[in-house]
Amino acid sequence: MNTKKVVSNVVRYFVYALVILFFAWAIKNQYFDYMFSQSKTFLLLLKQHLQLVFVSSILALIVAVPAGILITRKQFRRAEWIVSNTVNFGQTIPSLAVLALMISILGIGFKTAIFALFIYSLLPIYRNTVAGIDSIDENLIDAARGMGMKPYQILFRIELPNAAYSILAGIRTAVVLNIGTAALAYVVGGGGLGVWIFTGIQLFDNGYLISGAIPVTILAILVDLLLRLVERIVVPKGTKQTLEM
């Protein structure tokens, strides 16, 4: 295990420890009373939050992975600079600004929040798809061609399996990013746990604030762990070790 990986693990588990301590502090101070006394509302907001994350992430996956594959084909290489910089520019725009722009186009509601989250989560998946495919040794591709493989066979048997670790890492990043950003959906009437977070801020009520913020944090951690487990199962061990070197 290299130094970068060790540092990453230490930082991640340190953050997990802080969250657990904060969670214990919140329980001790009875800040979760709102969650239990208004359990139906909490479950509704949680459902809305999960819908926002799931739908926007699936849409980003459907668009970003094929776009990353296409841009790595020789006939589309010239467009890589334009597409990559356009996606990068979209990522630099603050999430609130994206939401404000979507309001002016689509109005207020669930669809507006979905579209804004979709735009904001394109970059990690697209960038990692391109990086994963570009990292494959050209000699491996040439060997596949020499064996008589057609382009689509090379893509599905050589490129995508070898790029799977990078692509899945991009998906994980996008989904976890969406879980946090989805809290802002409240601003455009999209619902979600952000309703309690912003209510707590407006009323200076720690109960509402923490009852919304802690579930979002725990959800992000659980999804991150789940997707890391998926990576371990799906990605061949040898491929993963090679990419981490």
UniProtKB/TrEMBL annotation:
Topology within the bilayer: Multi-pass membrane protein
Pfam families the UniProt entry points to: BPD_transp_1 (PF00528)
Subcellular location: Cell membrane
GO annotation terms (biological process): amino acid transport; glycine betaine transport; transmembrane transport
Domain of life assignment: Bacteria
Main subcellular location of this protein, as a coarse class: membrane
Keyword terms, alphabetized: Amino-acid transport, Membrane, Transmembrane, Transmembrane helix, Transport
Record bears the keyword Transmembrane: yes
Transmembrane annotation, as ranges: 13-31, 52-72, 92-120, 175-201, 207-227
InterPro entries: ABC_transp_perm/SBD, MetI-like, MetI-like_sf
GO cellular component: plasma membrane
Domain ABC transmembrane type-1: 46-227
Family named by the database record: Belongs to the binding-protein-dependent transport system permease family. CysTW subfamily.
Protein name according to UniProt: Osmoprotectant transport system permease protein
